[in-house]
């Protein structure tokens, strides 16, 4: 399968995700966000969580804040 074929087959789904505010690379951060949510439920402080996740996932602390904000936000309205 070529990239073209994959895009043609999944283009509609990708389009809907874009309209919802997702970025193509956000799939890489689902586990990171789940780890963040678990730590918050345990009552850990955000600053500590961000530092740990930055080290664990080799991502800057600033990016952790952006990822958490983006993945935690409501989807924009999706119109067919």
Structure description:
With about 80 residues, the chain is mainly α. The protein has a domain at about 25-75. The protein has four helices and no strands. It has helices at about 5-20, 30-40, 45-55, 60-70. Helix 2 runs antiparallel to helix 3 (about 45-55). The longest helix is centred in the N-terminal third of the chain and has 18 residues, at about 5-20. The two termini are about 30 Å apart. The mean pLDDT is about 90.
Beta percentage is under 5%
Radius of gyration: 15 Å
Count of alpha/pi helices: 4
Q: What structural category characterises the helix and strand content?
A: mainly alpha
Tell me the layout of helices and strands.
Blueprint (H helix, E strand, L loop, with lengths): L2 H18 L9 H12 L4 H12 L3 H12 L8
Helix pairs in contact: 2-3, 3-4
Name some characteristics of this structure.
elongated, 80 residues, mainly alpha
Characterize this entry briefly.
With 80 residues, the chain is mainly α. Helix content is 68%, strand content 0%. It has a domain of 51 residues.
């Amino acid at each position: 399968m070529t990239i073209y074929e994959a895009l043609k087959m999944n283009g509609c789904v990708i389009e809907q995700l874009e309209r919802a505010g997702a970025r193509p690379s956000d799939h890489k951060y689902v586990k990171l966000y789940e780890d963040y949510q678990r730590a918050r439920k345990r009552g850990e402080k955000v600053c500590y969580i961000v530092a740990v996740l930055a080290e664990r996932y080799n991502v800057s602390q600033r990016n952790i804040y952006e990822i958490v904000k983006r993945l935690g936000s409501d989807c924009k309205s999706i119109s067919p």
